[in-house]
Structures are given as structure tokens and as C-alpha cells.
Design goal:
Helix content: 10-25%
Number of strands: 18
Structural class: alpha/beta
Oligomer: single chain
Shape: globular
Strand order of the largest sheet: 10-11-12-14-13-15-16-17-18
CATH superfamily of the largest domain: Alpha/Beta hydrolase fold, catalytic domain
Largest sheet: 9 strands, mixed
Strand content: 25-35%
């Protein structure tokens, strides 16, 4: 009986390399080792062009042999409709670098996606970019309902009938970074309880009044206390109904929140959520240590939408900051993004008599672009050029509707997010606007 057992272990390790703009591939044979590296250079810092979009495609060949093939591009609308395409033949000598310029002219105002493809002897790859042409000329073919302002005026009147019953509880164990922390509870529209967190700098001057940053939540995001180091700013973070710490009466699954009562504009969850934001301003106005003339409403994604909506219906907001605001130009958005319309269509299919047309008629009252035209305070907007939740066309439609002082910051290579420069700019503008020197 053979008792010896021989075991052979063969271990294969593949490294996953995170690649952004630069792409690499490695030769498989020892006699032709090397890489092909490509870089696409956009001839605009923010991806915006007045007329002709311009790029340079650089190829670095470190192989021992010449690489031959082609480089091509495909331009599409944000919905994927082909607009332009072209290709060129290329030859990159061994251990050489070549650059190829591409100009894309004669495009209508709007935002586009562009894919650059390289197909050569030892390498195939695609680099995806986006760009805009004269975005200041973008408009929507859809207007706002004739009774849009009266609809929201009536909502404000309804909220005013609800006694807020503020309850403020200091949380000494949560205090840090030289700030006191308070849990705030109050009643909002439909007599629902909502909560937020107020943090205030500890200051020897008992009579000092603080400017206020009102932080509004993203979709189903829980907001706890925010601290920061600015001694002149109090921060109030709000959890709207059905979100975070305000789930007493509404506690639904994430995908169900956006569709809650969507068949009735007077009961739709976002009507109450926007009134929750108004109630937060009521609370700020009830506090003698807070400045009532220096309030910034700020948020991202749904929070960006809420910042625009609140600043539109409540003129007590002095500065609006909306990053990646969702739900703008909804009737065009429905053909451009998956969310939230996958969930909405599923819901419509389960409700006899409910149609997408009826839903869109209701959502016209919750379209960010329709709020934008009523903004009167300075407004900052941020967006990612490859955002597939708040697409650039839709965000710019909102932005172009703002008649107040405004500024937009575009992040050329980001999706549904913003870069750190946005927060820096927001802080500087806020301090300048509020004269916090």
C-alpha cells in the first residue's frame, strides 16, 4: 500500500488594477514585454465648450514591436442616441508616443457622452467621457402648472395651522470640538413628529448670535449632529419625515419612499418633506441665539432638491447650495434615468386606474426646475458631468431658470458626487454673503 501522498499546490494571483483615465495592458510573452498606455486629454477644464469639442488621444507604446490599428470615437446624447462617429488608422512605433487630435464640431447646445476606442495589435480599450456645448442655452419644452405657486402657498398655510411644539434637549455626552449638541423634536405638516440636531459653538460671549447652516438629507440618509470648526456658524441637520430619526409615522422600505402617495399631489410624501424643511426654518426663527438673516440651506442629491424647493417657497432662506439636485425637468428625466422611474412604473402597474401620465401631472408640482424660477437668494449649484441620476442636461435646465445671483461648479470626471472644491467655494461665498469676516 502506498502511504505517501504527494500534494501539489498551484496558486494563481490576479491583481485588480484600479484604472481611471490611464489604461494599461501587459504583454504575455517574454520576448515582447511592454505596455500600451492611453490618456484622453479634454481641452476644457470643466468639459464645457462654446462650439467645437476638442480632445487629444495620447498613446504610449513600450512594446518591442510596432502597434497598428485604429482609434475611433462615438458621440451620443445622454439617452444614448448616436450623434457622430469617426475613426483614424494609427501606427505607433516600438517605444514611441503618439498624439492624435479630435475635434467634434456642429453640435446643438446640450450635453453629450463620448467614447474613445483604441484597437491595435496588442491592446483594445474604451475611455468614456462627457462634454457640454453652450449649456447656457438649454431650456425645457415643459412649463410649470399654472397653479404651481398657489399650490405651495396653500401648503404653507396648512403648515402654519400645526403648532410646532418644539422640544429641545441638550445632549452633553455628545458635545465635542467646542460645540454643544441639542436634539430637536417638533411637529410638522399632518401633525407628524420630525427631528434634527443643532450644534452651537461654545462662546464666552453669551449674547453672540450665530449664522445657521441648515443641512438637508440625501435620499433615505440619516443625518446626525454635524460639528465643524467655524466659530460663527451653528449647524442644524434635519431628518425629514420617513428618514433617519423621523420614522415614527413613516417607516417604509427604501424603494417605496419615493412613491408614497404619489397618486395624490396633496398627500405625496415630498409635499410633507418640503414642509418639514419650512418647519426647520420656523425653529431657527424661534431661537434668539441664531441669526434669522443669515441662513444657508444646503444638501446633495435629494438634499439638493430640498434646498432648491425650500429656498423657493420660503424667502427666509438667504443662501441656497444644491449639489447634484435630483428630480429636475422630470418629464424629460423619465427617458434618461432608471431611478426613480423603475420603482414608479412598478407601483403604477399595481394600481388600477393609475397611469404614468397622471403621475407626471402630479410630479410637475415637485419638479426642481419649477422651483428654480422662484428663487430670490444667491444660489450655488454643483454637478458631475457623468451623473446618471441627476444628468447634466436636467441640472442645467434648473440652473438656467434661476434669475437670482448664481454660480455653478462642474466636475468633469465625476458622477453623482462633487469634489472638495465645492465645499471650499460654498464656505467662502457663505462667509462673504453673511459678512463673517
Amino acid at each position: 500500500m502506498i502511504r505517501g501522498i504527494f500534494t501539489k499546490f498551484l496558486t494563481i494571483v490576479w491583481g485588480l488594477i484600479a484604472i481611471t483615465v490611464t489604461k494599461q495592458t501587459f504583454a504575455q510573452t517574454s520576448n515582447n514585454s511592454g505596455t500600451v498606455t492611453t490618456v484622453v486629454k479634454t481641452h476644457s477644464s470643466d468639459g464645457i465648450f462654446n462650439s467645437t469639442a476638442s480632445y487629444t488621444f495620447q498613446v504610449d507604446n513600450s512594446y518591442n514591436n510596432t502597434e497598428t490599428g485604429k482609434i475611433s470615437y462615438l458621440v451620443t446624447t445622454e439617452t444614448g442616441k448616436k450623434v457622430k462617429a469617426d475613426s483614424i488608422s494609427v501606427k505607433i512605433d516600438a517605444h514611441d508616443v503618439e498624439s492624435y487630435d479630435f475635434d467634434i464640431p456642429s453640435l446643438k447646445p446640450g450635453f453629450y457622452k463620448i467614447n474613445f476606442m483604441i484597437n491595435v495589435s496588442d491592446y483594445d480599450d474604451t475611455t468614456r467621457k462627457a462634454f457640454g456645448i453652450k449649456p447656457g442655452e438649454i431650456t425645457s419644452q415643459y412649463g410649470k402648472p399654472a397653479d404651481f405657486e398657489s399650490f405651495w402657498h396653500n401648503a404653507m398655510l396648512e403648515l402654519a395651522q400645526v403648532k410646532p411644539q418644539y422640544k429641545v434637549t441638550e445632549m452633553p455626552d455628545s458635545s465635542k470640538d467646542g460645540r454643544r449638541v441639542f436634539l430637536v423634536e417638533m411637529k410638522s405638516l399632518d401633525n407628524m413628529t420630525i427631528r434634527g440636531w443643532l450644534t452651537e459653538p461654545i462662546d464666552k460671549n453669551k449674547n453672540k448670535k450665530f449664522a445657521v447652516l441648515l443641512g438637508l438629507p440625501g435620499y433615505q440618509v440619516t443625518l446626525g449632529p454635524m460639528f465643524g470648526t467655524d466659530p460663527d456658524i451653528a449647524i442644524f441637520t434635519l431628518n425629514i419625515r420617513g428618514s433617519g430619526y423621523s420614522r415614527d409615522e413613516i417607516n417604509v422600505r427604501r424603494e417605496n419612499y419615493i412613491i408614497l402617495n404619489i397618486e395624490d399631489k396633496n398627500k405625496y410624501v415630498l409635499r410633507g418633506a418640503i414642509m418639514d424643511c419650512v418647519r426647520a426654518v420656523d425653529f431657527i426663527y424661534s431661537r434668539p441665539e441664531l441669526r434669522h438673516d443669515n441662513i444657508i440651506a444646503t444638501g446633495g442629491s435629494l438634499g439638493g432638491f430640498l434646498a432648491v424647493a425650500l429656498s423657493s417657497v420660503d424667502k427666509r432662506i438667504n443662501f441656497c447650495s444644491a449639489a447634484n439636485p435630483i428630480l429636475s425637468d422630470i418629464r424629460n428625466l423619465v427617458h434618461e434615468v432608471d431611478w426613480p422611474f423603475i420603482d414608479i412604473r412598478k407601483y403604477v402597474s399595481t394600481r388600477p386606474g393609475l397611469t404614468m401620465d397622471k403621475v407626471l401631472n402630479n410630479m410637475d408640482y415637485f419638479d426642481a426646475k419649477n422651483f428654480a424660477t422662484d428663487l430670490e437668494c444667491p444660489t450655488l449649484v454643483g454637478m458631475g458631468l457623468v451623473d446618471n441620476i441627476a444628468p447634466p442636461n436636467n441640472v442645467y435646465t434648473l440652473y438656467n431658470g434661476i434669475r437670482a445671483r448664481k454660480h455653478i461648479i462642474i466636475f468633469r470626471d465625476l458622477a453623482h458626487e462633487i469634489g472638495s472644491w465645492y465645499n471650499v467655494y460654498e464656505g467662502r461665498w457663505m462667509r462673504d454673503q453673511f459678512a463673517l469676516f
